[in-house]
Amino acid sequence: MAARHNQRAHAILSASASFRWLNCTPSAKLNAEIPDVTTEYAREGTCAHELAEFKVNQLLGIRTDNPTENLDYYDQEMEDCTDSYAQYISEVISKYSNPIVMVEQRLDFSRYVPDGFGTGDCIIVADDVLTVIDFKYGKGVAVEAEHNPQMMLYALGALEMFSILYDINEIQMVIFQPRIENISEFSMPVSDLLDWAENELKPKAELAAKGEGEFCAGEHCRFCKVKAACRKRAEYNLAIAKYDFAPPDMLQDIEIAMILERADSLTAWAADVKEYALSEALKGRKWNGYKVVEGRSNRKYTDEKAVASAVKAAGKDPYSEPKILGITEMTKLLGGKKKFEELLSKYVYKPQGKPTLVPVSDKRKEWSAAENDFQEE
User: Fold this and answer.
1) 159 and 66 in contact (C-beta within 8 Å)?
2) What is the pLDDT of residues 214-235, one digit of tens each?
3) How confident is the model at residue 374 (pLDDT cuts 50, 70, 90)?
4) Architecture in CATH for domain 18-210
């Protein structure tokens, strides 16, 4: 039993983005031209992977430093999730007499994808079975292992390493997503994987590497960096606009079914366009008929302890278990706005609202980046 570790890296035709670029080949080069933006969710996931890697190495008897003290994100949930991940791997290993186990292993699948490589969380080789396990810390959407292109690419990379030494006949793929209790398992013959690689993966990867092929909109647009300004996605979502003014009882069943199918996608697309337009406007871009203003915000307490003391001194109970009453409820408790202002105005502030894009007819003053930066200072 052995394990190897490699630093994570990203390829233009990455395994993690393969669902997108296999469905929309021109999107690969467009996305590669835009810098990555690391979110808090991604940083949290990275920390969870570091802890998971440490625990699996412990399981394998490999001494490594416990990363807990240096993690930007860490809590009991992460501890429990990584424990269950290591336990799952232990159960898989126990099925075999002398498996080879690799942790955070760099996998090369460039035979089928130009410059293609990725990092497998856990690879287990034993007898005629190759098992690929992917640890996912996200909890927004359940990820399925069945014909998952990311997992299939990892399997191809692992086959490149071991097909000479082992007569592998079966591929086992596992998505381990503990925060939503999702363990998705799928197996397929090696022959089916290789057939997919030659006849579907390789031709599409060649197109994607050149930025060629047809744009295609769909569920795979979710993590595309150019989704807000993509014309094909706009066409896809605006296809239902012609039904906007038709009485519902005159729509045919097939039309209603199409609208239902695309309603969530249309809403998400509109939100993406608005977010993109706002970000560009904040950089100085002008949109005809629109301007940026300060958004609305709610008042907040500056010092909850001081508020509680003042309200208690007035003979009232400021608490609504398990926390202090909000401003609206506190105003009612004190008998009205006048008493509230008298007791608590010095403990209340109104934070600056976030910039928002509105029609020029809106009466609010146009946002000034320089002015608001000065106020924040």
Assistant:
1) no
2) 999 888 998 899 998 889 988 8
3) very low
4) Alpha-Beta Complex (3.90)
Residues whose CB falls within 8 Å of the CB of residue 217, separated by 6 or more in sequence, listed in order: 24, 230, 232, 233, 235, 236, 237
- DSSP strand E in the chain: where? 100-108, 117-126, 129-135, 170-177, 182-189, 290-294, 300-301, 319-320, 323-324, 348-349, 355-359
State pLDDT tens for residues 328-370.
999 999 999 999 999 999 999 888 888 887 888 888 888 776 5
Strands (E), 128-259: 129-135, 170-177, 182-189
In angstroms, rounded to a whole number, what is the distance separating the alpha carbons of residues 156 and 268? 34
Round to whole Å and give the CA distance between 11 and 13.
5
Question: What residues does 100 pair with on adjacent strands?
Answer: 125
* Domain boundaries, given as residue ranges, for the chain: 18-210, 227-284, 293-376
Whole-prediction pTM value? 0.69
